[in-house]
Specification:
The structure is a single chain. The chain has 241 residues and is an alpha/beta fold. The protein has helices spanning 21-26, 32-53, 72-95, 111-123, 140-156, 219-231; strands spanning 13-17, 57-64, 98-103, 130-138, 184-187, 206-209. Helix 4 (111-123) links the parallel strand 3 (98-103) and strand 4 (130-138). The structure holds farnesyl diphosphate (FPP).
């Protein structure tokens, strides 16, 4: 059966921490960047599998605010990979009906990469088959800090009454303001950590920590996790009556 927009037993929004590229490469006696390149190749297969699984939104963690602490060679290699990936994949993503968005702070990214990101967002803005969000220089705490700064500016300028601030207010200032909250968060490579990813948004998400290293992750494995999700009972803090 093909899942449709009206079939919501599965997750509508899946967020993925793509971990294990470095170990995947090391096990093959290759440099870490070899693993990142292999990891980038998995993205297309996973995104293309989403519509048939009823997954409308997929958000992937490509580079965190903490990843700058890696060696200069690895950081530069990743930035070059992102530039190449966008240039190479833009047409295919657009033709597949993928709407691409980026979240994270663009200020520290190089101008050429930001330009490519802007162009891809514009080029795919009319698409609606599947919404791919790429978190690049993203960290949840950084996002909440930036959101709070803008919220405070609105209060200071008289555009927002502090008495009206409630838990619906902050999400409007987050990078993810147009996205639904993730229903399912997957982390590959056997690590059971959230690593500063979508902390506010995933308050009620289900989590799957799986052993597979990201470059070995397949559409079949995503399908299995989506199916398992359908068996879970989400209560959002309530008691089943
Ligand atoms: C974590 O593995 C992975 C990253 C920090 C980078 C994720 C990037 C990609 C999958 C490649 C490209 C993505 C796009 C959108 C083009 P790790 O290096 O921490 O692995 P390790 O824990 O085994 O060292």
């Amino acid at each position: 059966m093909t899942a449709t927009d009206t079939d919501h037993s599965g997750p509508r929004h899946v967020a993925i921490i793509m971990d294990g590229n470095g170990r995947w490469a090391q096990r093959r006696g290759r440099p870490r960047l070899f693993g990142h390149h292999a990891g980038a190749k998995r993205v297309r297969e996973v995104v293309e599998a989403c519509p048939d699984l009823g997954v409308k939104y997929v958000t992937i963690f490509a580079f965190s605010t903490e990843n700058w602490k890696r060696t200069q060679v690895e950081v530069a290699g990743l930035m070059s990979l992102f530039r190449r990936y966008i240039s190479k994949e833009a047409r295919a993503l657009c033709d597949e009906g993928v709407r691409v968005r980026f979240i994270g702070d663009r200020v520290r990214l190089d101008g050429k990469l930001v330009l490519l990101m802007d162009e891809l967002e514009k080029m795919t803005a009319h698409n609606d088959r599947v919404h791919l969000t790429i978190a690049l220089n993203y960290g949840s705490r950084d996002e909440v800090a930036r959101a709070t700064k803008r919220l405070a500016q609105d209060v200071a300028a008289g555009r927002l009454d502090p008495d009206n601030v409630d838990e619906e207010t902050l999400p409007k200032y987050l990078d993810t303001c147009v996205l639904p909250d993730p229903d399912l968060v997957i982390r590959t490579s056997g690590e059971a950590r959230i690593s500063n990813f979508l902390l506010w948004q995933s308050a009620y998400a289900e989590y799957e920590f799986i052993e597979t290293l990201w470059p070995d992750f397949t559409a079949g494995e995503l399908a299995r996790l989506v199916k398992d999700y359908g068996k879970r009972e989400r209560r959002f803090g309530a008691v089943k009556v």
